[in-house]
Amino acid sequence: MLAKRIVVALDVRDGKVVKGVRFENVQDVGDPVEFARRYEEDGTDEIVFLDITASHEGRRTLMSLAERVASEIYVPFTVGGGIRSVEEIRNIIKSGADKVFINTAAVDRPELVREAVEVVGSANLVVAIDAKWNGRFWEVYTHGGRRARGLDAVRWAREVERLGAGEILLTSMDTDGTQAGFDIPLTRAVVDAVNIPVVASGGAGCPDHFYEVFRIGASAALAASIFHYGKYTVRELKEHLLRRGIDVRLD
């Protein structure tokens, strides 16, 4: 069985790392490359960079940031936000990113997933799914959580797997930034529906939250707030998980 992965999320706006709660009240918290270097030293398995305003404002992902990160750190990293074409995906991979994730563009035109996979391969393409419970099902949102799409997140997860995506980055908008725990029902539903890795995101507040989401089958778990504000280090988290019987990589 593959070791479970701890992923640190770095949301970026205007060149700065930012953090909000439920996709709102966003505040600057620091320089992205400095954060990345710190987390690499602390033992994170991967880092995700998201330009949180790119889809909404129609801007391209920060290519220069990808190049800078690739030149300064060795930990695998993923870049996303506002990516709308195969050409952009190819260029970001060329800039040094290990993986690219898409969300809005994939929902707008699902065939983009298949086209991108043909160019960069499944292992390099992640589809991000932002979902919120609407009383009947978990509904997919795009444009940085601003637009409801009437699309069932579990069905959409199955579809992106069929189209060739290598991984799903699943964020619960109901729990994002709350530190009250991952959305276990949503994560379990998606994990059970697909055979590709699912990265759980949104709501991590303590080591046991990671334990709970790994127990239901998530391949990786992503967090930001608990690391950015010094509540826990990645190393402390991994040591706790090892004590509880979860297989993680600890150098």
Which key features would you list for this structure?
TIM Barrel, alpha/beta, 12 strands, 8-stranded parallel beta barrel, 11 helices, 251 residues
Describe the structure.
- By secondary structure, the protein is α/β, with parallel strands linked by helices.
- It has a single domain (5-243), classed as TIM Barrel, CATH 3.20.20.
- Helices cover 37% and strands 28% of the residues.
- It is built from eleven helices and twelve strands.
- An eight-stranded parallel β-barrel has the order 1-4-5-6-7-10-11-12, surrounded by six helices.
- A hairpin with a 4-residue loop joins strand 7 and strand 8 (138-142).
- Helix 1 runs parallel beside helix 3 (63-72), helix 4 runs parallel beside helix 6 and helix 7 runs parallel beside helix 8 (184-193).
- The mean pLDDT is 91.
In short:
By secondary structure, the protein is of the alpha/beta class. It has eleven helices and twelve strands. The protein has helices spanning 32-42, 54-57, 63-72, 86-94, 104-108, 111-120, 153-163, 184-193, 207-215, 225-228, 234-243, and strands spanning 5-13, 16-21, 24-30, 46-51, 77-80, 99-102, 125-133, 138-142, 147-152, 167-172, 198-201, 220-223.
